[in-house]
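Good morning C.,

I know you're traveling, so I'll keep this short. The sequence:
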Amino acid sequence: MNMSQFQEFKDFEKAGWEQRASTYVSRTQNSTGALIGSIVDHLGAVAGLTAVDLASGPGYGAAEMAARGADVIGTDFANAMVEAAAALHPDLSFQQEDAENLSFDNSVFDLALCTFGMLHFAHPERALSEVFRVLKPGGKFTFSVWAPPEDFPMFGLLGGVVAEFGDLDVGLPPGPPAEAFSREDGARQAVEEAGFDFLSFVAADFEASLCPASEIPNWYRDISVRSQGLLDAQPPEKLAVVEEALIERFMEYEIDGMVVLPMPHRIVTVDKPLEEG
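The tokens, ready to paste straight into the viewer:
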């Protein structure tokens, strides 16, 4: 594995998440935060088990597992996110960790969770290997990813508007395929190559109330490093047109003054064999 590949992407992501912890929390409580419970359900009973939450962000997943009785630690590569999660959940433990190079010993956790974090990893295959390493034999791992862009209005609409009125090629650092785990065959291949036994791939949906359509351009900036990069790199003469078109498109989704958007996602659950190999 070439660990220098996508290093610029990794640095770009980390710097961006260090800057948006507070706004991300306020923007995602009705979306990502509201659907965490249905994702944690796929881990089964968690009470009394040790767990690690990867790319924990505001700590939604860690808090949900803890509420169900797990002994959990939340991790994120952005220290600002760690601090935000600790402030939101002062009774829980959070620490800065690189999911591709975890500091934990081998075989120490019964459970692992990663909600919508895989697309932020420069080397998701390395993160899978690290989860495999730190899980006990028989341990279970559940992760979620967004649906492919063609099925996911949040990113499909942004890409379509920018392609029509702006420039998609603005020099953002290239990264691994964003939808690599959004289809069952790709997810299954990746987890099995890491040594896991594949248990399930579930297509799920959720409707989230986001914000007024007039706030959509800034909403994109607050919830995604790459979305902000894409918007802010537009030539000035095109940016205003792109933002106006985004607002117009999202007005179609407004209900009582708030954008209500389908949030289709995929939930993958695997376990570590009792006997490796």
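Safe travels,
E.
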